[in-house]
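During the second half of the funding period, the structural biology subgroup turned its attention to how the target accommodates small molecules. The most pressing case was nicotinamide-adenine-dinucleotide, which had performed well in the primary screen but for which no bound structure existed. We therefore specified the complex as follows and requested a full 3D prediction, including the ligand pose.
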Amino acid sequence: MGTLDSRIAIVTGAGGGVGRGIATALAREGASVAIVDINFEGAKETAAQLVALGAEALAIECDIRESSQVDAAVASVVERFGGVNILVNNANAGRSQVPFEEITDDDLELTFRTGPMASIYFMRAAFPYLKQGYGRVINLRSGAEMIPLSGMGAYIAGKGAIAGLTRIAAREWGAYGITVNAIAPAVMTEAAKRYFDANPHKLAEVSQGKAIARTGDAEADAGRAVVFLAGPDASYITGTTVSVDGGSGFFM
Ligand SMILES: NC(=O)c1ccc[n+]([C@@H]2O[C@H](COP(=O)([O-])OP(=O)(O)OC[C@H]3O[C@@H](n4cnc5c(N)ncnc54)[C@H](O)[C@@H]3O)[C@@H](O)[C@H]2O)c1
């Protein structure tokens, strides 16, 4: 028996990285999980891993920048599982190492459309189901936003928007029994490895002052924090952010 038995979850960007860790943690607690990603191969791989654990899983190919594709993704989750209880807006693309004055229109489009805009698309599409008795939304922020990391201006602006939409949706949707929270993770993934391989000096910078001297894990750390916020013990917690960063206040 898990704390999320019979719950239905959507995790965006779960074809790898943090999203795969979150999807796995939710599945281990008994949730049926829809894995939404533009990378369909990755989504299918995650789904196969969850099925091997004995969970129900559905891989969905979706470009979350397009609201029509988001609506279709939510519809296919409802068709397959009968509703939506837990929504994790995890995917967020963007370019790093861009001086603020060199941020392009394309940078803004990519990071805002995959970040705050896609989060709203999914929340809007899932709302009719989230309000039917059990609704939890968990959005992804970043420590890089709270202690601004240089070279990540567009991304940090987008994460700031996610902070705002998390708080206002929590306020408005409390009346429907829906909680809306965020996590700000600092865990090692393939993308994080690529970033630190390209910027080795940044690893020392962000590791300084870390209270817990180990690398974070996508499933055991970020995933378990999401399980808590999605579960029965967090029904009185809304509009807040849990940093899962070893006390660094940074993003690694
Ligand atoms: N890794 C960390 O320590 C860390 C730190 C701070 C914040 N975060 C946040 O956690 C989340 C996941 O980070 P990650 O490191 O796993 O990133 P990642 O780049 O490894 O994974 C992102 C996933 O989103 C998918 N994706 C990208 N564009 C998409 C689109 N248009 N439509 C659908 N799917 C799309 C990708 O295919 C990928 O599977 C992000 O919101 C990120 O900002 C991560």
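Two results from this model are relevant to the next phase. The two ends are 33 Å apart (CA to CA). Residues 13, 15-19, 37-39, 42, 62-65, 90-93, 114, 140, 142, 185-187, 189-192, 251 surround nicotinamide-adenine-dinucleotide (CB under 6 Å).
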